[in-house]
Design brief:
Layout: E1 9-12, H1 18-23, E2 31-34, E3 44-46, E4 52-55, H2 60-64, H3 67-72, H4 74-80, H5 86-89, H6 94-100, H7 108-113, E5 117-122, E6 125-130, E7 135-137, E8 140-141, E9 148-154, E10 161-168, E11 179-187, E12 193-201, E13 208-209, H8 211-217, H9 224-237, H10 248-272
Parallel strand pairs: 1-2
Antiparallel strand pairs: 3-4, 4-9, 5-6, 5-9, 7-8, 10-11, 11-12, 12-13
Helix pairs in contact: 8-9, 9-10
Length: 275
Amino acid sequence: MLADPAQKAVVLAGGTDILVLLRERRRRATLVVDVKKIAELNELAMTAEGGLFLGAAVPCSRIYREATIAEKYSALTDAVKIIGGWQIQSRATVGGNLCNASPAADSIPPLAIYDAVAEIAGPSGRRQMPVAEFCSGVGKNVLARGELLVAIIFPPTPVHSGAAYQRFIPRNEMDIAVASAASYVELDDKGAIRKARIVLGAVAPTTVRATKAEEALIGQQPSDALFIKAGELAQLAASPIDDMRGTVEYRKHLCGVLTRRTLAIAVERAAANKK
């Protein structure tokens, strides 16, 4: 049905984005394909390798109720807990959030810091690609006609690793990030940072990797001064715009603040992660 050239088809997973867009006539469709009852898209399980298989139609509320996911993929849990309210979380899906490709999407920075992979099915078979490459622009993704996001697959998280996600919103009534940051760290046996990933949201057409900030962390002992330096370097990776939610300067400032905060939480979680 998705591949039929006579139809302008869209996928319904949770519907919290697409139904609003269709009703407001911001998207057009002749066919809505409901995928919520496809078994594989509803699978949520740890893999044999110790990673996570997250079906594209799994609602947010199922994710944060799983203690193992909260323990191993804490940044993902941070994000799904703040996507809308409770009613939205019972319908909204991480897969749909990814396909919607909003620069301010809450789930995409955490997916990127975990090096998650998108599993895509289509008329020609299946393919995989890094989530970090899935969004191609504002509201655009790499899915071709007839293709469907099946799942998001996370690699195992090692011991002494931790992650965190935070966003800033102007007020509770406007549930869209002005800026957001996700940080991931791995510590060595002496407590120094062995690996780091920092991904920023809402400050460019797609998520941004703050590589210079990451490089400044490698081999260093965690400290407030180090996190401040990383926050300053993270600001350089951002290329935000002025809009009703914030100015360019304000968004860059928030990148520094959110990077510092998420790094501190990630390091604390990594130190506590001993299994």
